[in-house]
Design brief:
Oligomer: single chain
Organism: [Candida] railenensis
GO molecular function: structural constituent of ribosome
Distance between the termini: 48 Å
Strand content: under 5%
InterPro entries: Ribosomal_mL58
Pfam family, one: MRP-L20
Mean pLDDT: 78
Shape: flat
Largest sheet: none
Protein name: 54S ribosomal protein L20, mitochondrial
Number of strands: 0
Low-confidence stretches: none
Length: 180
């Protein structure tokens, strides 16, 4: 009877903490650096001992007998040639863009940016969309038109969605000020 009581008390006396509690969200936060531990003993067992299966071959010394147990399959060049291509490789970049092409891209974008979008220009001249964005400026009229469309779309949102957006902005501001 005394033995059971001691065992029962010892379980309650030493709490188990798999992870030290802190004020940050463990699932989403990368700032899990300041633990707030309870006073007294904490049972935090060590991680399991690494085994040969979990140790990469590159980290095993050449004299280690486990290195011979792990054998990696290598393919011959004939086998690799017979395998299907899973992912297509990206095409090589072209670096033959002249100032005339850049001027034409800028002229088309400034004349009618609604018709000549970034993706259309990139496809026509065979350049990346980021290159088109760097070389051209957004037409202010088009920019105002797009912002008006976005504003009208936001006003048509339900009240609950608008409140959620406002609360999200407020939470971000609180996080940046380290207030929760």
């Amino acid at each position: 009877m005394f033995r059971n009581t001691v065992r029962h008390l010892s379980d309650k006396a030493v709490p188990f903490l798999s992870q030290p509690p802190n004020k940050f969200n463990a699932a989403r936060s990368t700032f899990n650096l300041r633990p707030v531990l309870p006073q007294g003993l904490v049972h935090n067992p060590p991680a399991s001992v690494p085994n040969s299966k979990s140790t990469p071959r590159a980290f095993l010394p050449s004299t280690d007998p486990r290195s011979t147990l792990i054998s990696h399959r290598t393919y011959s060049s004939d086998e690799v040639a017979d395998m299907p291509i899973i992912y297509s490789s990206k095409a090589d970049r072209k670096y033959d863009i002249t100032p005339d092409i850049v001027a034409e891209i800028q002229q088309l974008r400034s004349s009618n940016s609604a018709e000549w979008t970034v993706n259309k220009l990139a496809k026509k001249f065979g350049v990346s969309p980021s290159f088109v964005k760097v070389t051209t400026e957004v037409n202010e009229g088009r920019k105002a038109e797009l912002s008006q469309q976005q504003k009208a779309e936001r006003e048509s949102w339900p009240v609950q969605k608008q409140k959620a957006r406002i609360n999200r902005k407020r939470r971000v501001e609180l996080w940046l000020r380290n207030e929760f």
